């Protein structure tokens, strides 16, 4: 099996789901507290705007874009399959396709407009952030499916720290460039956590059936 049993998994899934839907409701109802927090953070980052920072954050936002996140995940799928880890490859594909569908459906349902005065062009709706959502899926795949194969725990911790910092930087880049509100990127992180944990619950529930159906034991 890809994952170990965890008694806290259902609780984590509920926490992420509840937190996400509460935030979504606050955004849909144009809650004044969310509005105030969003604009306060935007104003703080606005003081850091410069041609150099804009260039750096533009590169970061490209590397964390949905197109690049899809590329990273597809590449991992291919590598998993090549190294006879068919179950990991299928899981990665499922997470990618299912996650993108859910994120898109939420976007067109909430229909939140993007911030004004965007520094670089951005189309579509604002909530949730596809950049942060996709980056979270990439990073969780690396942390839970790739890093456990590393023998040195210190190496795993260092890479974990780098990956977490990368998510934060991508999130900051989206707010700095005014492609998203801060609440958009927070919502994306919560949605990614909810999707990952709920997918794990489904994985444990239907693992035996999937093994027989897809003959995963042969790999």
From TrEMBL:
Protein name as annotated: Phosphatidic acid phosphatase type 2/haloperoxidase domain-containing protein
Signal peptide interval: none
SMART domains linked to this entry: acidPPc
Lineage of source species: Bacteria, Bacillati, Bacillota, Bacilli, Lactobacillales
InterPro entries tied to this protein: PAP2/HPO (IPR000326), PAP2/HPO_sf (IPR036938)
Alphabetized UniProt keyword annotations: Membrane, Transmembrane, Transmembrane helix
Keyword Transmembrane helix tagged: yes
Residue intervals passing through the bilayer: 12-37, 57-81, 88-110, 130-150, 157-177
Residue intervals of the Phosphatidic acid phosphatase type 2/haloperoxidase domain: 92-200
